[in-house]
Amino acid sequence: MSMGPKQAILAEFAGVARALGHAHRLELLEHLGQGERGVDALATRVGLSLANASQHLQQLRRAGLVANRRDGKFIYYRLADDGVTDLLTALRHQAERNLAEVDRIRRGYFADRDSFEPVSREDLLERVGAGLVTVLDVRPQDEFGQGHLPGAVNIPLDELQDRLAELDPGREVIAYCRGAYCVFAFEAVAALRAQGRKARRLVDGFPEWKAAGLPVTACRCRF
Amino acid sequence: MSMGPKQAILAEFAGVARALGHAHRLELLEHLGQGERGVDALATRVGLSLANASQHLQQLRRAGLVANRRDGKFIYYRLADDGVTDLLTALRHQAERNLAEVDRIRRGYFADRDSFEPVSREDLLERVGAGLVTVLDVRPQDEFGQGHLPGAVNIPLDELQDRLAELDPGREVIAYCRGAYCVFAFEAVAALRAQGRKARRLVDGFPEWKAAGLPVTACRCRF
DNA sequence: TTTACAATCAAGTGATCTATTGATTGAAGT
DNA sequence: ACTTCAATCAATAGATCACTTGATTGTAAA
Fold first, then answer.
1. Residue positions of A annotated with a catalytic role
2. Tens-place pLDDT, residues A28-57
3. How far apart are CA A183 and CA A141, in angstroms?
4. What is the DSSP string of A119-177?
5. So what's the pLDDT on residue A1?
6. Taking Cα atoms as reference points, which of A12, A18, A182 lies closest to residue B16?
7. What is the ipTM, given to two decimal places?
8. Mutate which of A1, A10, A24, A68 to test chain B, going by most B C-beta atoms within 10 A?
C-alpha cells in the first residue's frame, strides 16, 4: 500500500511526535538536555532497567531526536541539536495553555512554592552584568560540570543547608536547575527565603538557556 | 501506582505528543489550519470513514489541540489556538533537520518543482505594499472563503489553466496554499513558469501566515 | 585468550492503539 | 410522533508498543 508524498512525510512527522509520546522518553530528553550521558547513568536517573532505557534511547535516535557516540566501552547519548529543546518547549507551552490537567497538577505541587514571578533570561543577563545577583545552580555536581550559566555557583540542593555561608547574604540569589518542571530550583528558593534571604527562580532551566543561544560555561575536566 | 508531580506532568505532555503521532491526525490538523470544518467535510478530504475521523478528532480534542462547537446538527471543529500551528511548525522543522528520510522524500517529490527559493513572509508583505506582485491563493474556493491573505486572488489549481487571463502577465505571481507540504503551490508555480510567467512560492502556507500574526482577510459570507 | 562489563539484541507477554461495524444520541424538518 | 441525517458511542479484531528476561556483541583490561 503506497501513499502520496504528503502522506509519507506526515507519517515521518508522526514518527517524531510518537517518539515524544512517552513520559519516560521525555524524562530521558530532559536529562540529555543537561549534557551527554551514558546509558547506565540515564537508566539509573530515570529509574528504568538498562535494557528498557536502551530501547527508549534507540527509539529517540530513530526519530532523529538524539545522537550517540562510542567512547571505549561506553556509549554516550546527547540531544541531536538545540532544536530538540525548542520542540520540547513548544510542546510544553501547548500543553500548559490548553490542558486543564496540567494546570491542576501545577497548582497543587508548584504554585505555592512560587509566589513570586520567575526571572526572565534577559533580566538575569542584565542583573549579572550589573553585578547585582548571585546565580545559583542547584543541580548535581556532574551536571553542573557538563555546562552551566557563566559565573554560576554550584550547590546541589541537598547540600544547600550546610553551605549557606558560601552565599553573600546581601545579594539576591537567582536559582535554576534542569528545566521548567525540575523541583530543585523551587525548593532552593523556598529554603533560602525561609532563611530570610532574597531569592528568586530563573524561568525554565539550563537547556532552555542554552537553546536560546545564551553563553554557557563548559568544564574542560572531562576526558 | 502513583507518581510524582513531574512524572504526572510529563505524562500529560506525552499525551499531547501522542495525539500528534499519527499521519491522519496531522492531516486533519493541516485542514483545520485553514479554518473550522464539519466532521463529514474533514473525513471526506482526508479520506477517512466518518466514525474514524470522528474518533481521531476526539483524540485531538482530549489533547487540547482542537475545540469544537455545535451549530444545529453539525459540529464544527477548529484549532484550539494559533499555538498549535507553532507546535506543528516546530515538529516539522525538527523532522526536516534530522530525518534523512524526510529529506529523501522532499528531494524526490518537491525539490525539482522548486528550483527557486520560496519568498519569505516579510518579503511578500514588502512587495505587496509596493504593488509589485500578484498574490495567488490556489486552494479550493471554500478554504479561500474562510480566510486568506489580504489582496490575494483565488484560482484553485485545477482551474488555473483556464483562468490564466485573470493574471496580469507583467507582474510576478507569488502562490501559496495550505502549508509547507501542500503540493498546490508547487504545481501552480511550475504551471505558470511553463507559460513563461514569473512565479514563485510563499514559504509555508496560510496557517503559518496567520499564526505569525500577519493580517488575514476573512469572508463574512458564512452563516 | 580469558575475563569483565557496557550496551544491544531477541523473544515473549500484557497493554494500548487503529479502523471497522452497527447501534445510539441529538437536532431539524414533516 | 416520525423521519432524516450528523455525529458519537460501543464492541471487535488486528496491529503496534512497553517492559522483562536471557543471550549476544563489542571493547578494555588481566
1. 177
2. 999 999 999 999 999 999 999 999 999 999
3. 16
4. BPHHHHHHHHHTT-EEEEE-S-HHHHHT-B-TT-EE--GGGTGGGGGGS-TTSEEEEE-
5. 40
6. A18
7. 0.90
8. A10
Q: Report the first-to-last Cα separation within chain A, whole angstroms.
A: 50
In window 2-61 of B, residues with CB < 7 A from nucleic chain C are 18, 21-22, 24, 48-49, 51-52, 55-56, 59
Give the Cα separation of A215 and B185 in Å (integer): 41
The three cell numbers locating residue A182: 525540575
Decide: pTM greater than 0.80.
yes
**Residue B40 DSSP SS3:** helix
> Is residue A99 classed as helix, strand or coil in its secondary structure?
coil
Asked if A173 and A134 count as a contact pair (C-beta separation under 8 A), the reply is yes
Residue closest to B212 by CA, chosen among B137, B121, B148, B135 = B121
Task: Find cell 477548529 and name the residue.
Answer: B78
Residue with cell 490575494: B152
**How far apart are the C-alpha atoms of A173 and A202, rounded to whole Å?**
10
Amino acid at B145: G
- The x, y and z cell numbers of residue B116, run together, are 527557486
3 state SS of B20: coil
pLDDT single digits (tens) A79-123: 999 999 999 999 999 999 988 888 888 878 776 665 568 899 999
C-alpha span between B123 and A143 (Å, rounded): 43
Phi/psi of residue A76, nearest 5 degrees: -100, 130
> Which DSSP symbol is given to B113?
G
- Distance from the Cα of B184 to chain A's closest Cα (Å) equals 11
